[in-house]
Amino acid sequence: MSIAEPAVLAETHPGQGKPLIEMREISIAFGGIKAVDGASVDLMPGEVVGLLGHNGAGKSTLIKILSGAYKADSGLIRVDGEEVTVSSPRDAKRHGIETIYQTLALADNVDAAANIFLGRELLTGWGTLDDATMESETRKVMGRLNPHFRRFKEPVKALSGGQRQSVAIARAIYFNARVLIMDEPTAALGPAETKQVAELILQLKKQGIGIFLISHDLHDVFDLADRVTVMKNGKVVGTARTADVTQDEVLGMIISGKCPPAAVAGPGALKT
Amino acid sequence: MTETAPAPASPVREARGLADRLREIEFDPRMIGMVAALAVIWFGFNWLSDGAFLTPRNLWNLLVQTASIAIMACGMVLVIVTRNIDLSVGSMLGFVGMVVGLVQVRLLPELWGLEHPLTWLASLLLAMALGGLVGLLQGALIAYLAIPSFIVTLGGLLVWRGAAWWVTQGQTIAPMDSRFRPLGGGIEGAIGTSASWAIGIALCAVICLGAALIRRRRKRFGFVLRPLWAEIAIAGLGCAAVLAMVLVANAYILPAGVARRLVEAKGGTWPEGGFSIGHGLAVPVLMALGVGVVITFLAKRLRFGRYVFAIGGNPEAAQLSGVNTRKVLTLVFGLMGVLVGISACISTARLNAATNAAGTLDELYVIAAAVIGGTSLAGGVGTIAGAMLGALVMQSLQSGMVLIGVDAPLQNIVVGIVLVLAVWLDGLYRKRLG
Ligand SMILES: Nc1ncnc2c1ncn2[C@@H]1O[C@H](COP(=O)(O)OP(=O)(O)OP(=O)(O)O)[C@@H](O)[C@H]1O
Ligand SMILES: [Mg+2]
Description:
The structure holds 2 protein chains of 2 kinds.
Chain A: H1 7-12, E1 21-30, E2 33-43, E3 48-53, H2 59-66, E4 74-79, E5 82-84, H3 89-94, E6 97-100, H4 112-116, H5 131-145, H6 161-174, E7 179-183, H7 191-206, E8 210-214, H8 218-224, E9 227-232, E10 235-241, H9 247-256, E11 264-265
Parallel strand pairs in A: 3-8, 3-9, 6-7, 7-8
Antiparallel strand pairs in A: 1-2, 1-4, 4-5, 9-10, 10-11
Helix pairs in contact in A: 5-6
Chain B: H1 10-14, H2 18-24, H3 29-48, H4 56-81, H5 89-112, H6 119-144, H7 149-168, H8 193-220, H9 228-251, H10 256-265, H11 283-301, H12 303-313, H13 315-320, H14 325-351, H15 362-372, H16 384-403, H17 408-433
Helix pairs in contact in B: 3-16, 4-9, 4-11, 4-14, 4-15, 4-16, 5-6, 5-7, 5-14, 6-7, 6-14, 8-9, 11-12, 12-14, 15-16, 16-17
Bound molecules: adenosine-5'-triphosphate and magnesium ion (MG).
């Protein structure tokens, strides 16, 4: 099989433009365990792709390769059709790839503003931290996500799970991302806040941002995603447009690896 | 109560305790505990020693003795905040002190002649550079080779103590340059009363100006402000502490003979019966204050400090946010080394000799100062001011016990128990309010 094969894309995206992100034949192993094994996914501008799979399927590991947290053993990544090396989180951010990690990746001992601007602090003319501006920007971006949030001065460990998640989301959307990776972004959110995030996703989508959405909630995924890619044991079972498959069919892909006819089968599909 | 419109968040606010309200005005309640502990120690020893503790002379010496440990404690806070430890500072101090002694007493006199006016500065810079290099080396081993800091610096403790002996095969080097000696305090290290007032007033101006500037900035962004009374009280307390220190230092009178020589050297005449001249602030104390201000600035106002604390809170998060955690860690140990260099000069100057045993057990006092000052060994939490106060608490205990004639072994027992007790209390406090 050729590594550059855009078969999935050609079949699911007839006649569309250049993909924003292409990940081809990505593999990574941790001490003999193949966490991701020859997985290929792609993402168009303004598209939401749901990444699904059982616990330990390799979803988080795959997107951590895109966000620069891990280095793939093999495979390649293209941004706007050009091959790039993403060897650190800094690289990913340079390409406009922002990530909301499943673990949130917050420094618990500092406040929301310090977390949102960590690594990209705003400075005064003197080269010192511009805490006032950072706090004021934080108030703005948090206002979009969680209008009731008031605890700007407290270390984020004092916040509730959902508030912490809001901070992690705020950090990802503040810097004008082109690609957003959301690894279970609503796991800790209440219904109102989850709805807010869903609205946010649709809004960002309209702005042409591509979004990888990892979630175990099939309803949510079907509401928000244009396509789903299902993983099992590190391999891609298949990719399908949400309009072409039913939730039960996708559930079948997740549980047994059985690929319905409307989906493009990947290397992890159950052979019949 | 004449309060009219109740605040919208009043149900939450009412449930808050004193500590929360203090935190609201951004005042660390733990600081109050530290000051209270210090007060108990001071008045306790004063009572036990029949008033010999709270004398200008004793307090002046106390501050001078605290300087070296306080300076290193500033660096240790940053090290511990990143979830590391540095056990090598005492040995490093010995090594750097020996090298500086050798250069100052053997090398520089040959190159520049004896008592060259720049010898003291060259010595200080050399000490900072050498300490910094040693620190960077240890930091690189910890950050890039991922060897635990406990092990690297435990190795360092042995290596640098051995190296200190090796510099001169164990020989003590003395005496030091006369312009270098003031770094250690003593009569020649006191800056006099008028200079002390000038510095004290300047410091007060900086405190008030700083508070006003921050307040104006927050006002411009429309943020919640501290109540004005709190702002004034905090600035007032800071100024009061500074001025009290100046008053005490100036009240410590120079011996008549020294005062007379001083007056006559300036071309004045010594009046019949003489008059009294105060010491004023001591150079090492000023150095410690300067280091405290600089490191606080570094920790609070610069990216570097933000990264140090973020790494302590969650190293993985810092790394995923694009922080070069290895570089920051290496620099933290480098900075620790620079501060050891400064302390090495103070110790050497104070002793007026470089000995290979200098700094023995200092690592323990430095770590204890940082921990008593509220630095959490779990990382992510600590303040420079707290650590400096911690150093003062430790030194007060020790000096107090010497003053009332406690045997040396018992002194160690007491200090050890106090350390454990302090950390236990701090833990209790955190559980209650954290
Ligand atoms: N840093 C690591 N070291 C060793 N093994 C790892 C590491 N990260 C992931 N793995 C393994 O790789 C596999 C895939 O893990 P991953 O976190 O990607 O799963 P996931 O699909 O995100 O699952 P979940 O739905 O539970 O979040 C698992 O078997 C996991 O144990
Ligand atoms: Mg996961």
